[in-house]
């Protein structure tokens, strides 16, 4: 995400002959964080269980905005993750204290979109 709050494309295209086969058609992947981050599970997203932060934020974003675009989906997921990041883990005792310290010292996850083709994420409707 840029300083102005818009998602930007980064080119990570592999040159032919690097062991990857060229994709025919549009392939899109959404992940829970950048390569230099770790995806988190947290009880802060659910009253009853630890679930993936990205999975939770993805479901909430799709439910809240049916027919959304990929850009809005990523922004809604990011907002949901940042909102839940501040909630303390519900684990008791030493383990809970340890988890809360680890979460407080880690960076907040940034949802990522990868695609076989560049497209306008603010205009293309999200399709599941």
Automatic annotation (TrEMBL):
<dbReference type="InterPro" id="IPR050452">
    <property type="entry name" value="Metacaspase"/>
</dbReference>
<protein>
    <submittedName>
        <fullName>Uncharacterized protein</fullName>
    </submittedName>
</protein>
<dbReference type="GO" id="GO:0006508">
    <property type="term" value="P:proteolysis"/>
</dbReference>
<dbReference type="GO" id="GO:0005737">
    <property type="term" value="C:cytoplasm"/>
</dbReference>
<comment type="similarity">
    <text>Belongs to the peptidase C14B family.</text>
</comment>
<dbReference type="GO" id="GO:0004197">
    <property type="term" value="F:cysteine-type endopeptidase activity"/>
</dbReference>
